[in-house]
Specification:
Blueprint lengths: L2 H23 L5 H20 L10 H10 L3 H15 L4 H4 L3 H9 L3 H12 L5 H8 L3 H7 L6 H14 L3 H7 L2 H11 L3 H15 L3 H9 L4 H4 L7 H13 L4 H9 L2 H8 L9 H20 L4 H8 L1 H11 L2 H14 L3 H9 L1 H13 L2 H15 L3
Helix pairs in contact: 1-2, 1-3, 2-4, 3-4, 4-7, 6-7, 7-10, 10-13, 12-13, 13-14, 13-16, 16-19, 19-22, 22-25, 24-25
């Protein structure tokens, strides 16, 4: 760039800064003002993208934030976000947290460009323990938690993803599960089944990230709400909760928690009740319960014999083979495949001759999809060892 070009560029930036500062203080804008804003913001956006340090020109982020907060123009808002993304990247995280209006609007906006800006900003905290401490000790942390309940699923997902990352830091997990924040999550859970399941997913994801995280979540009672909603009036909720609890079977500690919380007993008792054949949700709940048992034996195969001895899972499944519709039978076939994919489970199947004989007879007599499903089950059993 020549000296003349540099001088012209700086003059353009200075003029643009003056326009932005003037209009940031205005109570309202006309169409000419909006055109001037678009032009000034575009000049700054291009300038910030073309050099790493301002050539003696400074645009205060407060000016751009004020314009963003006032504007209803998508074009102006998008330019504000692009400019702020560059300017704020050079500030300390402590300074960023001072822009409470920007953060509040960013969390609540229906425009994804604003949501992305704010979550990109706070994402920086994950990479610095000192910044992360600043965040969890600020009022902004509560706003992030509240985002889980937003109707905008994109915002809710970004908040959940961010909190899952935070939950892997012990001091951040302690802050997340403080009495006040637990109370906030309980209140949000009461708003809708969707929000409740989002919070369940968050807590389960964090608890399964490490042994210490699981122990702390259980100790704080963060997981107890899950165990109290199985087979309530809302069967759709029950299905989702069973799916979440099934993920607990992946680790011994998850299994021990389910045992201690009485979940395993509840899920066994559920197998004693025949589903309403005319109610698809009732049948799906039974299928989810059967899947749980198959995954439990598969994941915790070292305890398979003790589990079968205590609960007689195969005996409980036998009546479903004789009476149930195809969807429940298919769930049993998959569970048996998981059951018998480990040597311990296969031994139990061999010992339960009545159940195994029933499966063999069904394989001989069935045709079509049912036979194909049974053959898949057999392939799993034959592959053991």
């Amino acid at each position: 760039m020549t000296i003349n070009e540099s001088t012209t560029s700086q003059q353009a930036l200075l003029a643009s800064t003056q326009v932005l500062e003037h209009l940031a203080l205005a109570h309202e804008w006309n169409s000419d003002d909006e055109s001037a804003l678009l032009n000034a913001l575009t000049i700054w956006k291009v300038a910030l993208e073309s050099f790493s340090q301002e050539n003696g020109q400074v645009l205060a982020p407060e000016t751009v934030v004020a314009i963003l907060c006032k504007s209803s123009s998508t074009s102006i808002i998008e330019l504000c976000c692009a400019v702020l993304n560059k300017i704020l990247s050079k500030l300390s995280f402590a300074d960023i947290l001072s822009f409470k209006d920007l953060l509040r609007i960013g969390f609540q906006s229906k425009l994804s460009v604003v949501n992305n800006l704010v979550f990109n900003i706070i994402q920086r905290a994950v990479y610095s323990e000192s910044d992360l401490r600043l965040l969890v000790e600020s009022n902004i942390f509560t706003l992030v938690i509240q985002c889980i309940a937003f109707e905008n699923s994109q915002v809710a997902e970004m908040a959940s993803s961010f909190l899952k990352q935070l939950g892997r830091h012990p001091f951040a997990l302690e802050a997340l599960l403080s009495p006040d924040n637990i109370s906030t999550m309980d209140r949000l859970s009461s708003e809708s089944i969707t929000v409740k399941l989002r919070i369940y997913d968050l807590l389960v994801n964090i608890s399964m990230s490490s042994q210490s995280a699981f122990d702390y979540c259980a100790q704080q009672g963060a997981l107890s709400s899950l165990t109290g909603v199985i087979f309530q009036n809302d069967l759709l909720e029950s299905i989702n909760v069973i799916e979440i609890l099934t993920s607990f079977t992946e680790t011994p500690n998850g299994y021990f928690f389910l045992e201690k919380a009485g979940v395993i007993s509840q899920l066994f008792d559920a197998l004693q009740i025949s589903p309403n054949v005319d109610d698809i949700v009732s049948r799906l709940t039974t299928c989810a319960t059967i899947k749980f048992w198959g995954m439990l034996i598969f994941n915790q195969h070292q305890y398979a014999e003790a589990i079968q001895t205590r609960f007689d899972i195969l005996g409980a499944l036998q009546p479903f083979l004789e009476e149930s519709d195809s969807d429940i039978k298919d769930a049993i076939f998959v569970a048996v495949a998981n059951f018998g994919s480990r040597e311990e489970g296969l031994t139990i199947l061999y010992q339960q001759s009545i159940f195994l004989d029933t499966i063999i007879a069904m394989c001989r007599s069935n045709t079509g999809d049912a036979k194909l499903s049974l053959l898949r089950t057999y392939s799993c059993l034959l592959g053991v060892g």
